[in-house]
## 1
Amino acid sequence: MKKIIPLFVILAAALCSVWAVKPFPTDPVEKAKALERYKQGLAIYAKAQKLYYAKKYEEANATYEEALTLFQDGPKPDIANSLNILGNVYLNENPRTALWYYARALSIRIADHGQEHEAVASSYNKVGVACMKMEEYDRAIAYFGGALGIFKRVIKKQHSGHFGANHCHLGNAYAAKKDYKSAVSHYEQALAVFLKVFGEKHPNIARVKRDLGFALVEKGDKKEGLVLLEEAKAMYIATEGAGYVETQELIEKLKKLK
């Protein structure tokens, strides 16, 4: 029987090795050593990329980690993004493995940028998505909420697509918990943001109206929910086409609700 590792152990293991990249030394001898380490790191990183594209994911991960030990001076490739891509590979079939990669990427981004950075918020969302896949909904809500807080602190615009997307994440998590009142609240906030950012006619408007409509139906407000679902269907047809997969799925679900 496969051993189930607690979520906090995965996160702690991934977050334990944190460092900060230093500028290249000014001393000529030390600078030469640092540049040599940097060139070695680039070569190993290139090898890791090849392993990834060959679908040798575990070997790619180990090679990325080897490259990281050499990128202690100066800038480095976006290894956090590479680890996120590895996480994506495992997300549907093995979300706990995906979580490890996402948490590792998060640790790198925190070390590189500090907590208050858009890249860190994006990594919080990645961890939240893995938690959703594992049905760890309260933890997902914590990470999605943390990401939303960072986005709101670092993005100076009054309205941003990031805000709307995170309200959608939170709506999805609350809906999964069957807390439809909270889900409706977040979907409504997402819709308000997306209308400001994208205007009336956009696929994201269709998606959030769809999700809000279903949440309202589940909450007991079927009449209001059906109105929004019909609006979502019309928007899908206008923006994505009648044959689009999400349009067809919505049409079929609407038939069952009526």
Note: Residues 28-53 form the longest helix (26 residues).
## 2
Amino acid sequence: MTARRRQRYERLLRWYPAEWQRTNAAVVLETLEENADRLGQLRPTIGEAWSLRAHGIAERASPALITIAAALGLLLNIGPVIALLSGGVTDDPWLSGLRITAQFVGAFLISTATGALLLRSGRIIAESAMATLAISAAAWALGAVAVTAWGVGFDEADSGAPRSWLSDAFPIFAGSAWLLGSFALFLVTHGLLRPLRSKTLRTILSTLLAIPTALALGISTVTPTGLVFGAAVVLVVSSFQLGTRPTTTRGVTYRRATLNQGQRTRIATVAAVAAVLGFGCAAFALTGSMWLPAIGDATDAMRVGLLGGALVAIITVIAGAEALVDRRGAVALGPVVAAIGALLSVALSYSLSIDNAMGWPLVILAAALTGLTGGLLIAPGLPGPPLLRASLVTAISVALAAALGLIVTAVPFVAPFLAAILAIRMTRRPRGINAMHNVADPLAERGLGRA
């Protein structure tokens, strides 16, 4: 036993959390010392040092830390999206560099939180997780430099200036980021595919999955809406690992009530009418200018058709609300009201002239209400105390609004299909009713079904 070797082991054990050190450090240190004496080692081996650091970081990957990383990643990527939607993007090189840095730091935090979730679930081992962390950090940094070089190249081309070394180096930075990102994803997928016995097959599949996925992730970072949505998913999953359970809210009933036949018929009828009207509005939006010249050109016909389609979609929401409220109680009214507000905002935006200054703010409002609809829908199942749940609903709503909110402008084309599906589902007799009839009929035959 040497004092220097013991000090090195003690420094390696500092990678672990303080609480772990107080409980386990002494025992682990003695075990490491005994093993080193038996093997005649004068210092920790490279493998031992790597493993201790990796497992120390793994111990620090608590659900709370993962949630914080995902939340920060979400915030860093929501900022550029909001700036883009609000028209706040400028050509100032410093602001552009700050935006790119925020996006890629956020992307690194989101990928780190995702890897930590896989580590905690046992899908990947600590050594692979630490290697992935280091490689992904370099990959995201090179990606940020590559995007900066791409922007500099565009500016130089627009101004007619000679190309700089930075813009010329774009392929090198982009290729290096792709290569490192592929390697990091290879380590993750190789761990996820551990159930496969053939190492050759695991290697081939991991390579085939990692290369295109790394490219897709790199491209998606330029338009960070995908990362925003991914951050929201990681945030919700990590929140459920905080050790809290969903809390019941007054007015929430977690029952699977069966609608009676009258309710089902009413919902099916309303949904069918909404589907017919919705398909008519969509057809008018696409072809109305051909058979009704008085309406104006194709743009005017499109706006009138989408206006009508958005209003008709409200009928579909109301029809589905009856079934939703019956299953979830009064708490379901929140997302219903938010959805109707989003559709009214869309309809109002289409009612204005195309150059009206209020058109775009109304679309942004519709996107925000669409995100709020999604957040309120899943709110009853979220874990934790009210403050945590409110924070999660806010984060999820903003993420959905940024990632998917603008899709609400195309709802007039989608709503008729949803209405038709709802009508078909309401016309089908549920299994519960069939089972009740199967039991009730024999009782009625014996005279036991009468009051």
Note: The two ends are 89 Å apart (CA to CA).
## 3
Amino acid sequence: MSISKFVREYSIRSYECDRNGLLRIVALMNIFQDVADSHASDLGVGIEHCLQHGLAWVGSNYHIKINRMPKWHEKIVVNTWPSAEKKIGAIRDFEVKDERGDIIIVASSQWILIDFARKRPLFLRDNLPQYQVIEERTLCTDFPKIPLPERNDITHNFRVRYDDIDVNHHVNNAIYPLWATESVDADFRLNHQPHEIEVSFKKECLYGESVEVVTQVDNLTTLHCLTAGEEKHEIARLRINWKQL
């Protein structure tokens, strides 16, 4: 039996918006996570099924292109579907439409299936034989390698809060783009909005750890390297293309 795309409507609320009344990046990432979790559960490969079998989905990459962010009170429709199968994971795509049916955001994400206790990658087909995909990509990306910053133009430090931690007991994926966008100069941030975001997740980050964000700024492109702990192990790398508000 073939599968269908998952569709959910959202109304943008005030607490999800920034000072300009636009949806926050962290809220967008949480919406993606919400529809992905719901669809995976409907397909029998969600978090409940995985936990029962000692498995977990771990995000390895996100690639997001934003034509415009929805505004406060605006209604959007989010579509998602598993779009490709990998040997040890899968790709899931997202599409956000406004009330007129115009596509305003597209995204693709890459996920690895792991043994939750051992933190080791597992073969997808061996452990989830029921997994199916819809071979359609909303964003044709192969998640190219994000280079390390060559210059340390800005350094910003954070401490992992309790509320940054999710049910997997490490920092939620939505927090990393938040840290990166918070690390740029205040004047730049006030006058620009992310247009394209690429994220490569490297290693889990835990409650209480100190996080350092090293940022390189080249006109409207920023590179970010996030490290954590006393040993400063790399936890994520991001490339963001910005546009003026």
Note: The two ends are 46 Å apart (CA to CA).
## 4
Amino acid sequence: MTSSEDRSPPRTGQRIQKIMAAAGLGSRRACEEMIRAGRVTVDGHEACLGDTADPRAQSVEVDGVRVRPPTRTLVYLLNKPRGHVTTTKDEAGRPTVTSLVPAQPRVFPVGRLDRDTEGLILLTNDGDLSERVAHPRWELEKTYVATVDGVIRDATLRRLRAGVQLADGPANPIRVRILARRKASTLVEVVISEGRNRIVRRLLDAVGHPVRRLVRVAIGPIRDDKLAPGKWRRLSQAEVTALESATVTPNKRRRRRAGTLAASEAPARRGRRA
């Protein structure tokens, strides 16, 4: 361990975690954990949170391997099939989402979908974009379509829209609407802006309607109904720009939601099918 007296922290350049995230080593939060764990050095000195460096003039290393800036930014859109785990490596040997996209340049998944959930997920080597899409403080909407057991009645729909208390705190979906009611099941759309573990499944289970199938169909403005399961494509620059523009401050989100929630619910009620 290098003492603070021996260290000569760089005072110009970019934050160390930003350099690491841009190189495809993970989200900024994941890179911050690597720094806290003492795995990162700058010119041979152990890095601390808050340190900066010039990645082209100084040697930033993780576990003894130099971090090199990416030659280009990549953002892939993948339609995740059921059974794949959202990680770069799985100790149990289960198939991963990264096995479905090119191995080089290296990318990492943005946020998580649980193993049984299908649908759209982003993979990128851009740590800043990953942070904006995945972190709940940016409140980017994610849209899911769930097939659940039983018929969701109007009283339950109102309860879902009002928010449901779960073991780890309240779940407050931005929008909920019924897409179809069948004899023994319901197709329901849920829009949320948080990423707690299995949040949509737990929300619907809490009101007595366990999920049979769950598919994420949109990430903010990004949607692709033609992308087959297991297939991927690169986002266009226009799509990346739209994705970045979709992030808003929490206060703005609350003001906008207060003004539009009632309007968004009315068409949903008219559009329900028995």
Note: The domain at 139-223+258-270 is CATH 3.30.2350.10 (Pseudouridine synthase).
